[in-house]
Fold this protein.
Amino acid sequence: MAKTAPTHERLRMHLTQAATRAENATVQTHLNAALDELETLPTSLRRCPGCGRVGLPERIEVHDCPTGRAVRGESDR
């Protein structure tokens, strides 16, 4: 499974650099809003033990697993 924390860190770095370099106030506002939203995103994904689908934990818990073997709350660690 892909590691998501480094991706979050890279995205945070790029957004922060863009926000500090942006000359337009509206652009800075949008970039700062994106940084705020980034903080609310989960940093880990979950794999369904039944079908192998990978996604946000709250979506994997409720997805329609074709095998019918999905177990709520079980993660791929």
Notes: The helical segments are 5-21, 25-40, 57-60. The longest strand covers residues 46-47. Strands lie at 46-47, 54-55.
